[in-house]
């Protein structure tokens, strides 16, 4: 899941970078894949009897038409970017982590529990404690999957996938019990204590989560390219044999990547709960983990692409309701675009990472 | 008790069909993570076919085609273009979820999904056998696709174990180079296996929509494809083993449904975890002895 050959010298490292940015190289292939999925989407819109350009314009307008909408779009991108960075790190290490879906949900529950526990603390302490609670809960959930994977040789996709379903049910159980609001009629927690709310930037609806996510993406790039851990990840990811030969502990690399990914996904869940809903709601993160995989797919191939990939998906989704309202094209189209983008990117870049 | 067992069989049937398809795919060397999307496409196509023509047979044919179409996408991307099997499966699951929801709304011409209501397929009681007390209604009075599932287990066992092409398919999953050396085309074998997997899993989806619910709703498979995937692994890639695993998962869900009715002290959410936890426990228990097809997930060169 890495460069054709691990970057063994600075010269090959530089060369590798140059190749990846040339049109016709990976970057060009990804662009062609994106273009193809948009063309398919346009055909589907056409089949429904609407004008594709009007639909795309409505998406853009709905996603970025006002400060309020830009803020909502950034909020939308945040969990995808945060969790996607973690999943991309796992991809780079050759670990296919499909568990972000469950880790985000558990992270949301962890953040909610911490927020209630620190209800009387000053705001900064409460927010930090709640976000840490989310990250720890997410990392713990990823840890369970990793332990099963490494300890019992269960394929990581199956371990993480099956635990997703358990995680969603566990959150429902918590909402039906200790974390729930009695008599609410559906599964949700009471409103978070005000001290744990993430502030919103004046004029925008954006919470600072997006900044945290951008920092995470930058840190991902730095760790991957500039640290021994990142180097080991890239070597082991492109060839398990080479990694083992170089003396890297594959188990420790897997633990490292999975725990970081779990913590980031948990943080994403915590930010969503504290910044957007301000309470834990059943299904608040439905589908987030799979979108994180889409984002990570691009990010694992080219780390610079994580942020635009998350923006792409977040903006599409954020503008999709406006498209449905104004043009009449069903917003489910966005899910189609996500699936197509994944397929085309996979086909265009397979074996060339 | 009879009711509980009947519910077990009912819940297990769509899972078992999907698992049978998945066995074909995995035995040929391609991870079957796309089962969920194949089932969903099959469930959708079956409903549209039966609803527009009024003939359940048309629905069943369309379910085969709908599932096969998703299989074709997997075959191209994962086999022909050699992309990662798991991520490709996930991608078609997302695509299938989006496409079925989108088309449901396009068909109605608005933002609301079209409502298609069918009367679920009627049971076909087998004469004489279905008159046996207790066992008769339980085993010999099912709708047609349930019998087909049992026949499918038998057929797939014979196909994999006793036919030349079944042998080639298994060899493709274990040692594709040997298949190539023997003069067969492992690439084509894998693509066909994945497409057939899609068709059979699509039929599993049709069981849900045509035989059990009588309509299609967004994402109605809700994770059953993943459960089928777990079942075929728990059943060690054998049709009868997978079917037995599906029955265990079905029993867990049937148990949960009955407990809800009684207002038992155990929370239904905890019991709903059972199939997933059982699958995890069995996988963990199998550990190194899981007997995964040796070449599963490994890409084939194009000129093979």
Written overview of the protein:
The complex is a heterodimer of chains A (353) and B (304). Chain A contains 14 helices and no strands. The N and C termini of chain A lie close together (6 Å). In chain A, helix 5 runs antiparallel to helix 6, helix 5 runs parallel beside helix 7 and helix 5 (100-117) crosses helix 11. Chain A has helices at 10-21, 26-47, 52-64, 67-92, 100-117, 123-152, 156-176, 209-226, 228-238, 240-245, 250-277, 288-301, 306-326, 333-349. Chain A has 353 residues and is an all-alpha fold. Chain A has a single domain (10-349), classed as ABC transporter involved in vitamin B12 uptake, BtuC (Orthogonal Bundle). Chain B has a single domain (2-115, 145-289), classed as ABC transporter involved in vitamin B12 uptake, BtuC. In chain B, 71% of the residues lie in helices and 1% in strands. Chain B has helices at residues 2-27, 35-53, 56-80, 85-108, 135-139, 144-162, 164-174, 176-181, 186-213, 224-234, 239-262, 268-272, 274-286; strands spanning 124-125, 141-142. Chain B has a two-stranded antiparallel sheet. Chain B is globular, with a radius of gyration of 19 Å.
Helix/strand/pairing category of chain A? mainly alpha
Helix fraction of chain A by DSSP (H/I, runs of at least 4): over 70%
Q: What is the level-2 CATH architecture name of chain B?
A: Orthogonal Bundle
Count of DSSP-assigned helices of chain B: 13
Order of helices and strands of chain A: HHHHHHHHHHHHHH
What is the CA–CA distance across the termini of chain A?
6 Å
Instruction: Give the overall silhouette of chain A.
Output: globular
Question: Regions of chain B with pLDDT < 50 over 5+ consecutive residues?
Answer: none
Oligomer: heterodimer
Strand tally of chain B is 2
Secondary structural class of chain B: mainly alpha
Q: Give me the CATH architecture of chain A, please.
A: Orthogonal Bundle
Q: What fraction of the residues of chain A are assigned to beta strands by DSSP? A: under 5%
How many beta-strand runs of chain A?
0
Number of domains of chain A: 1
Our Rg estimate of chain A from Cα atoms comes to 20 Å
Question: Under CATH, the topology of chain A is which?
Answer: ABC transporter involved in vitamin B12 uptake, BtuC
Distance between the termini of chain B: 54 Å
- Unreliable segments of chain A (pLDDT under 50, ≥5 consecutive)? 1-23
Number of helices of chain A: 14
How would you sum up the major sheet of chain A? none
């Amino acid at each position: 899941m890495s460069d054709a050959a691990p970057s063994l010298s600075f010269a090959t490292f530089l060369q590798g970078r140059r190749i990846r940015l040339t049109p016709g190289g990976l970057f060009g292939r990804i662009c062609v894949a994106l273009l193809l999925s948009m063309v398919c989407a346009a055909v589907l819109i056409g089949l429904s009897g609407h004008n594709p350009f009007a639909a795309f314009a409505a998406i853009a307008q709905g996603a970025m038409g006002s400060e309020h909408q830009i803020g909502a779009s950034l909020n939308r991108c945040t969990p995808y970017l945060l969790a996607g960075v973690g999943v991309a790190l796992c991809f780079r290490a050759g670990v296919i982590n499909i568990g972000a879906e469950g880790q985000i949900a558990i992270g949301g529950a962890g953040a909610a529990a911490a927020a209630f526990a620190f209800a009387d603390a000053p705001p900064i302490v409460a927010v930090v404690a709640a976000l840490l609670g989310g990250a720890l809960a997410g990392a713990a959930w990823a840890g369970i999957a990793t332990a099963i994977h490494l300890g019992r040789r269960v394929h990581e996709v199956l371990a993480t996938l099956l635990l997703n379903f358990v995680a969603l049910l566990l959150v429902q159980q918590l909402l039906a019990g200790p974390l729930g609001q009695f008599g609410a009629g559906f599964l949700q927690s009471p409103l978070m204590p005000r001290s744990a709310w993430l502030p919103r930037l004046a004029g925008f609806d954006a919470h600072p989560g997006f900044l945290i996510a951008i920092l995470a993406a930058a840190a991902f790039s730095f760790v991957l390219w500039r640290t021994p851990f990142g180097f080991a990840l890239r070597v082991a990811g492109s060839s398990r044999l080479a990694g083992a030969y170089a003396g890297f502990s594959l188990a420790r690399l897997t633990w490292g990547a999975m725990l970081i990914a779990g913590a980031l996904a948990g943080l994403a869940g915590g930010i969503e709960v504290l910044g957007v809903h301000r309470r834990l709601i059943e299904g608040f993160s439905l589908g987030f983990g799979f979108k994180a995989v889409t984002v990570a797919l691009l990010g694992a191939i080219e780390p610079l692409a994580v942020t635009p990939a998350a923006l792409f998906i977040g903006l599409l989704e954020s503008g999709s309701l406006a498209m449905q309202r104004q043009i009449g094209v069903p917003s489910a189209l966005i899910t189609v675009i996500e699936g197509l983008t994944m397929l085309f990117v996979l086909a265009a870049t397979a074996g060339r990472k | 008790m009879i009711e509980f067992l009947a519910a077990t069989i009912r819940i297990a049937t769509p899972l078992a069909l999907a698992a049978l398809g998945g066995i074909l795919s995995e035995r040929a060397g391609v991870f079957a993570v796309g089962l969920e999307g194949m089932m969903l496409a099959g469930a959708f196509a079956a409903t549209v076919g039966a609803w527009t023509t009024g003939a359940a047979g048309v629905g069943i044919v369309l379910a085969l085609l709908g599932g096969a179409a998703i299989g074709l996408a997997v075959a191209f991307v994962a086999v022909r273009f050699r992309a990662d099997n798991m991520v490709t499966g996930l991608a078609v699951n997302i695509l299938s979820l989006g496409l079925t929801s989108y088309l449901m709304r396009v068909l109605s011409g608005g933002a609301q999904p079209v409502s298609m209501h069918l009367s679920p397929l009627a049971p076909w009681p087998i004469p004489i056998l279905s008159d046996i007390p207790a066992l008769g209604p339980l085993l010999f009075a099912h709708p047609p696709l349930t019998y087909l599932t049992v026949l499918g287990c038998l057929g797939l066992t014979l196909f994999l174990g006793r036919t030349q092409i079944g042998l080639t398919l298994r060899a493709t999953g274990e040692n594709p180079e040997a298949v190539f050396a023997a003069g067969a085309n492992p690439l084509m074998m894998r693509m066909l296996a994945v497409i057939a997997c899609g068709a059979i899993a699509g039929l599993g989806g049709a069981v849900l929509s045509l035989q059990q619910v009588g309509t299609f709703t967004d994402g109605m498979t809700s994770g059953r494809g993943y459960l089928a995937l777990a079942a075929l692994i728990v059943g060690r890639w054998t049709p009868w083993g997978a079917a037995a695993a599906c029955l265990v998962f079905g029993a867990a869900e049937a148990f949960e449904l009955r407990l809800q009715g009684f207002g038992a002290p155990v929370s239904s959410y905890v019991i709903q975890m059972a199939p997933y936890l059982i699958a995890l426990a069995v996988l963990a228990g199998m550990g190194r002895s899981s007997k995964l097809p040796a070449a599963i997930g490994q890409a084939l060169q194009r000129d093979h």
